[in-house]
Design goal:
76% helix; globular
Length: 127
């Protein structure tokens, strides 16, 4: 039972940590500076990753890394902090929680992906 409690606590740590982003943004960081805040959040992790791995993309991976970095880190963090500055915390958190449903709807509508009902998910997902 001890292992189960430890796993549960570790699983709960990620959403708790992620949920503090809005509190830290609105209370502790410089006001009206969403791009600076996004940079302060992403740059240290990127530099640490570069220092640890000492690898840079090669060949065709440069443009892929640039597009992925811009969309997944640059645009996401900047827009997240803009919303945290402009929206009440509860509204911003609700929008963030609805995001997977929005992506599912867009994948179905725009890309034509079939969305399986949750009861037909693979056994690995249900475990």
């Amino acid at each position: 039972m001890d292992r189960m409690n430890r796993t549960l606590a570790l699983t709960a740590l990620a959403p708790i940590t992620w949920g503090t982003s809005y509190l830290v943004t609105t209370e502790l960081l410089p006001p009206d500076r969403p791009l600076l805040t996004a940079t302060l959040r992403a740059l240290p992790a990127g530099l640490l990753l570069l220092a640890v791995t000492r690898l840079l993309p090669r060949g065709g991976w440069w443009w892929k890394a640039a597009v992925l970095g811009t969309l997944n880190i640059g645009a996401f963090f900047a827009l997240m902090f803009v919303s945290a500055y402009r929206l009440p915390g509860g509204v911003a958190a609700t929008l963030a929680a609805v995001h997977p449903l929005l992506v599912t709807a867009l994948a179905s509508g725009v890309l034509g992906e079939r969305v399986a009902p949750p009861w037909r998910a693979s056994p690995q997902v249900q475990a």
